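Order emerges. One example.
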Amino acid sequence: MAALTSHPLFHDGHAGFDTALDSEQQILVRDFNAKAKAGEINFQHEPCIICGSQDGDLISTYDRYRVWQPMILCKGCGLVRCTPRMADDILTWFYGSDFYRKLTGGNNILPHDRQKFMVLANRMARRHATITSLVPKVRSVAEIGCGAGWNLWPFHLQGCKVVGCDYGPALTSFGRDEMGMDLRTGSTEMLDSERFDVIILSHVLEHMPDPAAEISRLLPHLADDGIFYVEVPDARGICHGALHSAHLYYFTPTHMRALLAKCGLEAIAEHTHDGNVHFSLVARRSSTPVTIDLSMEYQRQRHAIRRIDQRMRLKSALERLGILDLVKRLIRR
């Protein structure tokens, strides 16, 4: 079991208040937390996937929705992760349940239609631009966690072979039947023996219990000169409002480079997105071992978390005093 600090770095007294919950969400959270406290939901401790350490600083005991989920900062390499995390069978239930969709608002895109599809496809078009700037002659693209195929759509329009895999049958059916793309319900196992110039992993690795194993399973499907496009939330600006029980890991670019290196991959490009909320790496096979220096990541992340938490405490105090707007106006002058 991990050796943890006794008090969370994020102050639980103001944790979660930035996310307003409706009455249905409040009931869902209370029910989940009661079951977790009673031992009816299985949790398991796992060592750090980057450095193997068990030790860490407790960051928070609740996520932004007030779901009970301890999260720690690894003392070995500075990776933020959930521990104990939901056991594998519970994660399978979690992602396929009404609980997850209703809590996170994911059911708002269902039922899907062409208007919703195009709004999301246009919003995600920057990924196509990033990839084609590095690989001008893309002939085939696969995506794990494709939803309805929003990221694949611009590649489909330019005549590429596209294959998408996702566990959501309603979305894959829409992308297949209404938009004409080859979308399959499932994950990596649905790719058969096919190989692709580009494999997209956009906002999926942070959800996976063993992201290195998932990347390794995908390597045989990557063409010899192919690339991975990986995008995840950026942990360098982590705040309590970014903590989500569905996110098992919170990577910085350095952590992601280390994870890719464990799989024999080297990052060749890095981009930040959405005001530094997310980042992406483009990676390819490396002919020589890649070494990533993680020696300063723990101190960097601990310092960043304490700085952000102090700012949030000050904001909460000013709100209670009713002078937050006044202070903001004075700062802008």
Observations:
- The longest helix spans residues 297-321.
